[in-house]
Amino acid sequence: MIELTGITKTFTGKQGPIHALKDVSLSVKQGEIYGVIGYSGAGKSTLIRCVNLLEAPDQGSVKVKDVELTALSPRKLREARSNIGMIFQGFNLLKTATVYDNIALPLKLTGLNKTVVKERVEKYLNIVGLNEKKNAYPSELSGGQKQRVAIARALSHEPEVLLSDEATSALDPDTTEAILDLLLKINKELGITILLITHEMNVIQRICDKVAVMENGEVIEEGKTKDIFTSPQHSTTKRFVNSLFSHDIPDEMLTNLNKTGHVATLSFFGESSGEPALALVSKKFDIFPNILSGSITRLKDESFGQLLVHLKGESSEIKNAVQFLKEQDVHVEGVKISGDNQRVS
Ligand SMILES: Nc1ncnc2c1ncn2[C@@H]1O[C@H](COP(=O)(O)OP(=O)(O)OP(=O)(O)O)[C@@H](O)[C@H]1O
Question: How far is ligand 1, taken at its centre, from the CA of residue 179, in Å?
């Protein structure tokens, strides 16, 4: 549905060129929710703005539904853009217009008649659950309600693609959850493909099928959310994944524990697969596993758990136990302590 190939964008900064995007390629399939995560300045906004050519890339190809957008005339580009909705962190609502008019005015500009406009506004206000607020002004709405209006406005053009530029970053955790649920519903029930950018791993965790991690204008890691969570490769990706699990054990304690065995994180899917596998390990091998910390969270439709464990015993027994855990689909990774990388895997 969205194919970005070899996208390069350089800005002219006061201190010289800023290479915001360096040869970035990305492929989003129809019906997917695809998340791009990265720290501030990674290039996420520039990338998402290239998809509808709000930002023109210096080089590279932007295809949406097999149409090369960079080659279109201004009129054809306007048509193509009507198939790509967008929502923003700051909502971008007209302050002087009611909720109804915020959605209706852009529709009228496309030439739709009054009856169709009314039907569309009501349909999409219903979908976002805000029909009773149609005569309110944005200043009378909460942040979550403003984002709902913005979503209804984007959907009212009946696009196949929705771009979300940090749509939940200005919202509190409960409102964020509600907006993420709404995005899931839109994806499921209307079949809209969603490409979003965020700096919050919980957004990726809750709704994304796939994720790309960006740093310094490049995609450093990409794949199914499930795979990235169980086996992050790049140190930045590991930081993002670990941000969801606070195994707050002091380094000194970890160093001491490593003298009598190995400290490792075990990642697993399903609520019950981690602990039973660990119980079996203590029966089968001459080791004593001790859970130091653990938590379970949800990855879209599945539960995903992580345990920080101390495996006490001889190295050879630990090695066999780790091999056994891997065979039970538990991902095992040694924990770094003070630069001394005691890898178990
Ligand atoms: N119009 C511009 N002119 C000059 N530099 C820009 C412009 N837009 C972005 N940049 C620079 O490009 C780099 C990437 O910015 P971008 O906004 O895409 O990153 P980001 O990952 O979205 O970060 P943030 O979450 O802080 O917005 C940054 O160094 C930024 O300062």
Answer: 25
